Amino acid sequence: MSKLPNTTTSIFSVMSQLANEHGAINLSQGFPNFPVDERLLEISERLLWGNIHQYTPMAGLPSLLEKIAQLTFKNYNRKINTATQMLVTAGATQGIFTAISALVNKGDEVIILDPSYDSYEPSVLVAGGIPVRIALNEDYSPNFNRIEAAITAKTKMIVINNPHNPTGKIWSEADFEALELILEKQPQVLILSDEVYEYISFLHPHISFHTREKLIDRTIVASSFGKSLHVTGWKVGYLIAPENLMLEIKKVHQFLVFSVNSLSQHIISEYLDVVDFNQISKMYQQKRDLFQNLIKNSRFEVLPCDGTYFQVVNYKNISTQNDVDFARELIVKHGVAAIPISVFHNDATDRHMLRFCFAKTDETLIAAAEKLNSI
Ligand code: PMP
User: Fold this and answer.
1) How many Å apart are CA 158 and CA 136, to the nearest integer?
2) If you measure from the C-alpha of residue 373 to the centroid of ligand 1, how many angstroms do you get, rounded to a whole number?
3) pLDDT tens-digit map of 344-369
4) Whole-prediction pTM value?
5) How far is CA 185 from the centre of its chain?
6) Residue 116 near ligand 1, beta carbon < 6 Å
7) Cα(234) to centroid of ligand 1, in Å?
8) Is 194 touching ligand 1 by the criterion CB < 6 Å?
9) Which domains are seen in the chain, by residue range?
10) 163 CB under 6 A from ligand 1?
């Protein structure tokens, strides 16, 4: 019997392939189409000839772990023990899967807030856990009444994604305080905080679980160098967790991956000496503003985007079609690929929303907007 009977080819692959077939502008999948930093290429070229091709230690290249610790201290004022609290992973996806496999037992419930990133539920199911998917509010802020009501004696974990894919919503101080109040009474509940867009926050600086003293002793934070260094194909990320949880996570990691590819770890370790993460939000804010401005007179309704590189739009003034059909038509007839939001809901809630990725060159955004404006 299949462990994942409802899992089919991911919508991201489906839409990207359809976009390729029809030569559409691909604003569907979440990856940049601009060139990577030349300094990264220069470091890659130079290091390639060195002694960097064999296994690294299981938890990660020591120099990289050290630099991640420095980064976490600089950004969040949190001191991390590199030997016991940190793990380099093959992207955040593997980190999330590994953490769930290690910590969720058969029959444990895991709360997931919908719309949600597509890897959470399958990770829970493979571990034998029970995904409990509850809806965010209409404006995509967390609904704490629903969260509280969903917690039972079997609740093992709540998965939180902030800044949020697909909606671009970010958590406020009040959101954290509300969660802290609820979880005060629920000491058994762990938090898996997916913060892969931690460097893309426009409304206010990103608030990380790294800074939440009340919850940090039971939180696993997932980060992604793919997202923060614009190299999604490298698939390198990391987890930071309390020692007791990390011990279990490492047990699974060593048999799933053992050590993450050495080349990327060496290159990223050196690149972290020169890269400036403060520039990332600024760069993406310009792209967000450009894209929002370009389509503001279109028939699409542009929703707020406070973080990430995703823009959600409502197309109810254009069509009554369901969002998957409309997204297909957008590719085939109009030459632009997007992701329908219903696929992020377990009950396929369809509010006529699409997600566009604006991590693209200005030329790409201008060309896409021209097509969207003509609809
Ligand atoms: N979480 C979220 C919310 C994401 O959007 C993504 C990438 N699309 C990931 C995790 C996966 O990150 P990585 O590529 O590092 O596995």
Assistant:
1) 13
2) 30
3) 998 888 999 999 999 999 999 999 99
4) 0.97
5) 28
6) no
7) 12
8) yes
9) 11-37+277-373 (3.90.1150.10), 52-271 (3.40.640.10)
10) no
